[in-house]
Known about the structure:
By secondary structure, this protein is α/β, with parallel strands linked by helices. It has one domain: Rossmann fold, CATH 3.40.50.720. The chain has helices spanning 38-44, 63-74, 85-95, 98-103, 134-140, 181-197, 199-202, 226-229, 242-254, 273-280, 284-290, 304-315, 348-356; strands at residues 3-5, 16-18, 55-59, 78-82, 119-124, 155-161, 207-212, 214-216, 257-262, 301-303, 318-319, 330-331, 334-340. It has a seven-stranded mixed β-sheet, sandwiched between helices. It has a two-stranded antiparallel sheet with strand order 1-2. Strands 8-10 form a two-stranded parallel ribbon. Helix 2 (63-74) crosses helix 12 (304-315). The longest helix is centred in the middle third of the chain and has 17 residues, at 181-197. The chain starts with a strand and ends in a 23-residue tail after the last helix. Residues 4-46 and 174-178 have low confidence and may be disordered.
Amino acid sequence: MLxxxxxxxxxxxxxxxxxxxxxFVQPGLKNNHHHRSSSALSATATASSLSKNDAVxxxxxxxxxLNIAKAAKAAGLRPxxxxxxxxxxxxxxxxxxxxxxxxxxxxxxxxGEPFYGELAGVVFCAEEAILPxxxxxxVLDWKDQDIYCKGGPKxxxxxxxxxxKVNNEKSMGWVPIFNNDKKEKQVWNxxxxxYNSHPVMKNGxxxxxxxxxxxxxxxxxxxxxxxALGLDECxxxxxxxxxRDLKERSFDRYRLGVQILSGDAVNIKPPNQEKMEKxxxxxxxxxxxFRAVGGYPEQDRANRHSxxxxxxxxxxxxTRPVGESGSGDTVEKEITVLSKCISQLPTADxxxxxxxxxxxxxxxxxxxxxPEDYGFELD
Length: 379
């Protein structure tokens, strides 16, 4: 079994998939009558999207992983959380879902274990720079390819942060990272480069890369639909900062809308936007309201719910070739997910449109803002 540990050398990352039992070996070193090479992984894959009841492996412990698990379950998939045992034990207080905890595992299943031979999808979904580049081949080229459904994984998604952020939001602090900023950037770059060079990403319609902005939110303090999708409200308290608590909640209340951008991108605010806003809207509370409604876009931040939903929606679509025109049932090879100020998640039709027509949300004209249209009553 490929097992997650929580204590490792700092030269690689804090949490990796690493050898800790006789069941772990590098591909090609273990005698097993079930064998398909890495080239066969790409060549034999038939379907390129997941369907209800498909099992999907989620690698990279963190809140985003848990949000993806809840979103996947709600969509009818069977998510399998992979994490060290001590993390799994602590996840119950965040998930409040006995089924997800029961199905969680410390590593890739062995023959006879639950989900062996049923894994149809793989998601690398760490929030922090904790996954090494070697993990891609360790998981996707696993010697015993019969851990996957017939033909190998139908769909593989890797999550990674955008390269150039506008704002430097501090991490939630849930996973302690001892690498300096330079080291974190190096770990991410090596991980993404390794993923992009693997056959599942280079060839066919199996793989895609989802970039995310600085992550906030992910709990239940918002629209009713979050009750089934959100983590326990205790996640708002993880940073021990009251201001951060309010900011996390504001994302769940007001920033569930989604922007899908092509490639690794941000939505830069026009240089005259703030001047226009302050000139057109004199009252501070009205200006605050203007920036919290009507699809007001984020430059480089994303709600965990929005990213989790985008991952699940991507799993249930195939990847379209580079240069091919968009359609609602396919997704570009690399996209960025950012938030915008709408207090509900996209509908099925809206997801189709987002994937078919990726692009930045336009910045609104403050001169046209009518607070009463959004239920605000002015004195």
